[in-house]
Structure formats: structure tokens, C-alpha cells
Design a protein that fits this description.
Blueprint lengths: L8 H34 L1 H8 L2 H27 L3 H28 L1 H7 L4 H16 L1 H16 L4 H24 L3 H27 L14 H32 L4 H37 L3 H38 L4 H14 L3 H16 L4 H25 L1 H24 L20
Helix pairs in contact: 1-2, 1-8, 1-11, 1-12, 2-6, 2-11, 3-4, 3-7, 3-10, 3-11, 4-7, 4-10, 6-9, 7-9, 8-9, 10-15, 11-12, 11-13, 11-14, 12-13, 12-14, 13-16, 14-16, 15-16
Length: about 450
């Protein structure tokens, strides 16, 4: 356990973030390895088939990830308030609400899978492969939920090291299974999907074993599962708010993916490659946001609003530092990175992907504000401004997909995200700088209050 209510905020955020950052970067690495194996051994069409479903996958999985993250923030606030009984009650509620939601989403997504794929304009030439791949991934949604719950609860009590170790084991297994299923067994894109699920299952098993041996303070007893309407409402308000925030972002990407899927296989492959790289560089922003949220959650529970405010500023400075690194890397290494992850020396794909990356990365300084402020406000229970900003992102992408992209092509897609980032940063800045509690110098120690708008 790591108490984030004592010590220098910058140091605590960095120590909290490093294992989380390494874990996320390692996850991106094995996703890139997965992509490279598909592109090199199965070819451009299979690469495009997997890429065409990425936004749908992100939308569904993103909601679950946001949901469990929100649940974890409620746990973090009670942990900061040193209320052990409430911590166990929130863990019990997390398990109950999480698995009910996962079951409903799994059933719904599989029933409506074909209409969803047609809605995002997946071409007939790649439809069968896309359906096979994403169908397997969505069927294993409960496995993803298990890992997300375990990781969110461990983060809530300040433990980010062990989830990193389990993720490394999972990543190595995933790459090995990819090579086995795709190269040795000839299972195609289905092999890549099964490799992902099996490796996630390994990670879940390790997390559960560790929590039963080292984090028994998180384990609820039967009495903690007694239904509490007020606690369930509080947790689902926070969790659904985070889940909605994550999924609205992904729905916006889903809308754009439908637009991109109409531009042809090479453009789909190009966008999939550039998104893989941009997601890798965006990962640290999400980590700093998660660190700010958990730091804010614990200190909010302890009534230390001065530390909450300082932590938010420090996380933003870290995000800006990474933005500078991202700009430098993409302006010097983009073509090399594109060829590396695709396993192809296709001039069209390389040039289009490079132009996307070089246009977007200078706006990462704005993106850093968006991600840190959005997560940080959720960490102290403020839901309205983060959700408004996510709706704004969705509306902006809908507008661009319907009006701009049909007229100027892929250039419209390329400029969409920087445009919405600027608007979102303005909305979140208003929410941050007008928040009365964040203006407090130091508040009294108190129990966490229900999440609010």
C-alpha cells in the first residue's frame, strides 16, 4: 500500500506513475508486436481487418476500463480517509456492479456485432476477418473486466508495481502465443485474438493470487456484499461517469473510423499504423492523468485540498515534458516507426502515416491539459465538466466526419483531433479554475462525500 497523503506531491506522483507508465508502454509494445506479426505474416488485408475494428474494441473495452477506474477512485477516497470498512464495501460493490455490466455488454455486443461492423463501414473484402477477430475479443470481455478491477483496486491503495510485473508476464505470453497460433498453427487473425485472451487470463490469475496473499485488506467478507443503495448509487455515478467519458472518446474515434473505412484498404492500414504509434505516445498522458486522479482521490478523502491542487499542477508539468519528447521523436523517427510496426515498405502508407503524426504531435501540449484535468476532476468527484468535454469531442468528430472529411478527404480526419482538443481544454480549464474546493488552502479532515457534479 502507498499512502499518497504524506510527502512531496511531485515525488509521489512520479513514483506512482513510473510502474504504471512502464506497464502501459509495455502493453503498447506488445500491441505493436501483435500488429507487426499480423502485418508481416498475414499481409495488408488482415492488417486492415484488425485495424478496422480497433475503434469498436476501444469503445466497449474503454467503457469497462472507465467504469472500474471510477469505482477505484471511490475506494481511493475512503482509503485516504482511513475508513477500512468502507474500503471493503466498495470492493464488494465493484465486483458486483462490474460483472453485471460486463455480462450485459458482452451479450449486447455479440448480438449486434454485424450491424455494428456495417455501421462503421467495414468493407466486404475484410468483413469476415474483422468479424472473427473482434467477436473473439468481445466474447472474452469478462476476462478484461477481471484484470481492470484488480488493477484499479491495487492502484487505489497506491500499488502500481505488481500490476506492471503481471503485465510483463502477460505480454511475453501474448507474443509467444501470437507466433505459435499465427505462424505454426496457421489460425490467422483468430489466432491473434485467442492469444490476447489467453495472455489476459494469465494476468488475471496472477493478480487474484497476489491480492489474496498481499492485499487481504481489500478482500471483502460476506457481510460487505449487503446491498447499500446509497453506496451503489455513488459508485455507479462515479464509474458510469468515467466509463461514459472513456466511451464517448472512443465513440468519436468510431465515427471517424467509419469515415476512414470508406477511403480504401491502404488508407485504413495507414491510419491503423499511425494510431498505434500515436496511442503509444499518448499513453504517458493517460498515466499522468491516472496518477493525478488517484493522488487527488486519496487527498480529497483526507481533506487536503492544498495537496490536491499542487498534485494537479505537477501532473500537468510532467505531461508537458512528455509532449516535448513526443514532438521530437515523431519529427525525426516517424517513417522508421511506421515501417517497423507494419512490417511493410509501402510508400503510400508510410507517407500518409507520417503526415498524420507530424501534424498532430505539436498539439500534445494541449492534450496534456485535457487528459490531466479531465481525470483529476473525476478524482475529486467532479463529473460534469469531464463529461461535457467528452460530449464536445464526440460532437466535433461527428461534425468533421459528416461535413469536412467528405469534402477534403483524409486531411479532415487529420485535423479533427487538434481542433477538439483545443475546445476541450477550454471547457476543462473553466471547470478547474472555478472549482471552489480547489481554492481552499487546507480543509478539515473528513469522510469522502458522494460523487457530485
Amino acid at each position: 500500500m502507498k499512502d499518497l497523503t504524506q510527502g512531496r506531491p511531485m515525488k509521489l506522483i512520479i513514483l506512482f506513475a513510473i510502474p504504471l507508465l512502464l506497464g502501459n508502454l509495455f502493453q503498447q509494445f506488445y500491441n505493436l508486436a501483435d500488429t507487426r506479426i499480423v502485418g508481416q505474416f498475414l499481409g495488408k488485408q488482415s492488417f486492415a481487418a484488425v485495424g478496422a475494428t480497433s475503434s469498436l474494441n476501444s469503445t466497449v473495452i474503454g467503457f469497462l476500463n472507465g467504469l472500474t477506474t471510477g469505482f477505484g477512485l471511490v475506494t481511493a477516497r475512503f482509503f485516504g480517509a482511513k475508513d477500512k470498512e468502507k474500503v471493503k464495501q466498495t470492493v464488494a460493490a465493484t465486483l458486483t456492479l462490474g460483472f453485471i455490466t460486463a455480462a450485459v455488454l458482452t451479450l449486447a455486443s455479440l448480438i449486434f456485432l454485424d450491424p455494428l461492423l456495417r455501421l462503421i463501414n467495414v468493407g466486404e473484402d475484410i468483413f469476415a476477418e474483422s468479424r472473427s477477430y473482434i467477436g473473439i475479443i468481445l466474447a472474452g470481455m469478462s476476462v478484461t473486466m477481471c484484470y481492470n478491477i484488480a488493477a484499479a483496486l491495487m492502484r487505489a491503495v497506491g500499488d502500481t508495481v505488481m500490476p506492471l510485473i503481471f503485465l510483463v508476464v502477460s505480454a511475453v505470453a501474448n507474443i509467444g502465443l501470437d507466433l505459435l497460433f499465427i505462424c505454426a498453427f496457421g489460425m490467422g487473425v483468430e489466432g491473434a485474438a485467442y492469444a490476447t485472451l489467453i495472455s489476459q487470463t494469465i494476468s488475471v490469475g496472477l493478480c487474484i493470487r497476489y491480492m489474496f496473499t498481499r492485499h487481504r485488506e481489500l478482500l471483502p467478507s460476506r457481510r460487505h456484499f449487503r446491498f447499500s443503495r446509497s453506496l451503489a448509487a455513488d459508485m455507479y455515478a462515479q464509474g458510469a461517469s468515467m466509463g461514459l467519458m472513456y466511451s464517448l472518446v472512443s465513440i468519436g474515434s468510431l465515427v471517424m473510423q467509419g469515415c476512414i473505412n470508406g477511403f480504401g484498404t491502404e488508407t485504413i492500414a495507414s491510419h491503423a499504423a499511425s494510431r498505434k504509434i500515436s496511442e503509444m505516445f499518448m499513453t504517458p498522458f493517460s498515466v499522468f492523468g491516472a496518477a493525478a486522479a488517484n493522488f487527488g482521490g486519496q487527498n480529497y478523502g483526507a481533506g487536503r485540498m492544498d495537496r490536491v491542487r499542487k498534485g494537479f499542477y505537477d501532473a500537468t508539468l510532467l505531461a508537458w515534458g512528455w509532449a516535448g519528447v513526443s514532438v521530437l521523436a515523431n519529427y525525426t523517427l516517424a517513417p522508421f516507426m511506421i515501417r517497423l510496426i507494419t512490417g511493410m515498405d509501402n510508400q503510400f502508407i508510410t507517407e500518409l502515416s507520417t503526415s498524420y503524426l507530424r501534424f498532430n504531435t505539436p498539439f500534445y501540449f494541449i492534450l496534456g491539459i485535457v487528459i490531466v484535468f479531465r481525470n483529476a476532476l473525476q478524482g475529486i468527484g467532479v463529473k460534469l465538466f469531464p463529461v461535457i468535454s467528452s460530449f464536445t469531442e464526440l460532437a466535433g468528430k461527428l461534425l468533421i466526419a459528416s461535413l469536412l472529411a467528405p469534402r477534403i478527404g483524409y486531411t479532415g480526419v487529420k485535423i479533427s483531433e487538434p481542433f477538439v482538443w483545443i475546445v476541450m481544454a477550454g471547457i476543462l480549464s473553466v471547470g478547474f479554475f472555478t472549482n471552489k474546493e480547489l481554492k481552499q488552502v487546507r480543509g478539515p479532515r473528513r469522510a469522502p462525500r458522494p460523487a457530485r457534479v
